[in-house]
Amino acid sequence: MNETNATRCGFVALIGAPNAGKSTLMNALVGAKVTIVSRKVQTTRSLVRGIALEGDAQIIFVDTPGIFAPKRRLDRAMVTSAWGGAGDADVIALLVDVRKGITDEVEAILKRLPQVSAPKILVLNKIDSIDHPRLLKLAADLNEKVKFDHTFMISALKGHGLQKLRETLAPMMAPGPWLYPEDQVSDAPLRALAAEITREKLFERLHDELPYESTVETELWKEQPDGSARVEQTIYVTREGHKKIVIGEGGRTIKSIGTAARKDIMEAAESKIHLFLFVKVRENWGDDPERYREMGLEFPKK
């Protein structure tokens, strides 16, 4: 690492409507899987930090839950968390899915953005999905509504435009020491990341069959003498019928979820993992303050 007085460090909050591609972008910018991705809206529930290096700058990206009109207590907690992450950041990056354009959710974010004092950049994602004239018009329309310091046109999935984004953000970080070691890519504990990975595989496998209130907790992470680890996780669902769906006929569904999750967890842990999954019913967990604390969310009073 360079001398402290030559380094920069800061936080960039990635905000946007659900499924704008924030988690995909975070993983691509960091160069490792630090947050989960799924087609299911509101997959990201709490603030996830990914750490990238660009020259002398350490850029800490904060993946926030998608911002939408909340209906339930968990929804309200996630939206509050997202705006809290934006308020604490050095730079706000609004990510917009160009295929959807300025939806009601994006419009609501644009109205609130001027209340946040940090510099703002616009990131137009999935640019390979629409034609150039429409893309330019969307960029102009968004910049007319809010003054953005920079506008980027990218494809998070394909990696297009990401290097320019990092190079622009680096000098926007404040001079100062790096907050994390040079080789660290996330501040999430491995147990928490492992639980999120399994939740991702759960949604990938079942998607519309399972409500997104389902959650996963890592109950045990025990290092073995041979350097491997025994990991026990519990998938919590809200109904007995959901438990049967997760297990599947003859246990086939949960076995396929475990196989896929173990592969990604081993990659994250850089060691052999013996993964054991259990399914339990926990009714009304959305009203339990302890569950919110475990997810890093503030429990809404109502």
List descriptors.
single chain, 302 residues, alpha/beta, Rossmann fold, GMP Synthetase, Chain A, domain 3, 2 domains, seven-stranded mixed β-sheet, three-stranded mixed β-sheet, 10 strands, 34% helix, 23% strand
Structure commentary:
The protein is an alpha/beta fold and 302 residues long. The protein has two domains: 172 residues, Rossmann fold, CATH 3.40.50.300; 105 residues, GMP Synthetase, Chain A, domain 3, CATH 3.30.300. It contains nine helices and ten strands. Strand 8 and strand 9 form a beta hairpin. Helix 6 runs antiparallel to helix 8. The chain is globular and about 55 Å long.
What is CATH's topology name of the largest domain? Rossmann fold
User: CATH first level of the largest domain: which class?
Assistant: Alpha Beta
The total count of helices amounts to 9
* % residues in beta strands: 15-25%
Number of domains: 2
Cα-to-Cα separation, first versus last residue: 47 Å
CATH architecture of the largest domain: 3-Layer(aba) Sandwich
> SS-based structural class?
alpha/beta
Helical amount among residues, as a percent range?
25-40%
Nearest-angstrom radius of gyration? 20 Å
What is the H-and-E element order?
A: EHEEHEHEHEHEHEEHHEH
Say which CATH homologous superfamily of the largest domain is assigned.
P-loop containing nucleotide triphosphate hydrolases
Mean pLDDT metric:
82
- Count of distinct strands: 10
Shape: globular
Major β-sheet annotation: 7 strands, mixed
Can you tell me the residue ranges where pLDDT is under 50 for at least 5 consecutive residues?
38-45
